[in-house]
Amino acid sequence: MKHLCEQITEKRSLRAKERRMDWFDVDDLTWQDWRWQQAKRIRQSDELEKYIVLSADEKQAIAGTSASYRMAITPYYLTLIDPSNPMDPIRRQAVPSLEELHLEDDELVDPLGEEEFSPVPGVTHRYPDRVLLYTTHNCPVYCRHCNRRRKVSMPETMPARDTLSMGVNYIAEHAEVRDVLISGGDPLTFSDNRLEDLIKRLHAIKHLEIIRLATRNPVTLPQRVTPEFVEMLQKYHPIYISTHFNHPAECTQEAAQALRRLADVGCVINNQMVLLKGVNDDPHVVSQMNQWLLRHRCQPYYIFQLDTAEGISHFRTPLASGVNIIKALRGWTSGLAVPHYVVDLPGGGGKVSLQPNYLEDKNASTYLFRNYRGDLFEYKEGS
Ligand code: SF4
What we know:
33% helix
């Protein structure tokens, strides 16, 4: 008997397929071609209106954000939108809203101080033993909650090949760096050859122990994870994949296939969800998604509290929402499905984790804890 969630996934994939048939007159081979998906991204409101009815506010928002943070939606991701629901979680992540144009006092262009901690262009070195290496400013879908919108969506501003080489050289010259996170934009918008060239050079650095790829392609363009691509990756283990599922509506058969291909060649996959008001600030939503991810060999790793980037505050939740999600998961489902809830501190302070308070009292070396069911238990620590 199939898990209930898998049945829901099948139904969702079926509905998306029906929309695909109605909206796009292409054969399977074309639909599975990631370059076709990338080339046919929906970028203008008159294009988008062919598929979903836009509100006046949405049209104004698309026009108003086009100079600073563009819209792009792959045909695949578009078919996941339920057009009858104005608050659809995929729509909210992909279609601009007017709130993006209202800037708040505490919003920052570069909320994590990534430029300030950049020793050479294209690298952020904030933590002692690991660095971020930026590749491209292109992504299949420009997520409306992106914290790097200061440069993402402007592919013409992406680092040149020389800049990438400076980044690789920096890592080679810094023996303390044992972990690199290749990010962007989305590095999988590079061709396999270009990505392999970069990974190969990093892999050759003796002190670099692991290579991580940050990509939302399994969510927004799962067709990109081809057999050829994963065959290339498996030459450079240990490869870690950090992906970014935010809602069970993204958990489709195509996404499952992308995760399967990555896991089958030995990549270690984790998910970094961003907590978004009205999208996924609900323990049931997170639980459903995390259980699906685990079944597909992707470990829920982080829930990120939303950064204070410009134009995204309408997605920001109280911290209590994240803590309550952890509280609703811990004990009630596999520990593997319980991620770390973290706040990445503005200005480059790094991540701090938050969790429910289970400690009720302390007397000398005896602690009184309340467990996930609300029952009290004592624990005596060692001396
Ligand atoms: S995929 Fe990542 S980098 Fe690209 S728009 Fe979405 S959040 Fe930003």
